[in-house]
């Protein structure tokens, strides 16, 4: 099972049942930097189950980005 995060809601980090789910944070490069900083501050360590994917969904399709 996996979970794709495309808005900054932190659901994957707040819900205990999500701890076993692979998470893909998909966003603009600059936005991902901000998200990572906030998550590090909140969690101290970024979970290994989370993959940060830089893309511009106005230019690239999600399915091509995750290949």
From TrEMBL:
Species annotation: Thermoflavimicrobium dichotomicum
GO molecular function: methyltransferase activity
Pfam families (UniProt xref): LCM
SUPFAM superfamilies: S-adenosyl-L-methionine-dependent methyltransferases
InterPro entries noted in UniProt: Ppm1/Ppm2/Tcmp, SAM-dependent_MTases_sf
Assigned keywords, A-Z: Methyltransferase, Transferase
Entry superkingdom: Bacteria
GO biological process: methylation
Protein's recorded name: Leucine carboxyl methyltransferase
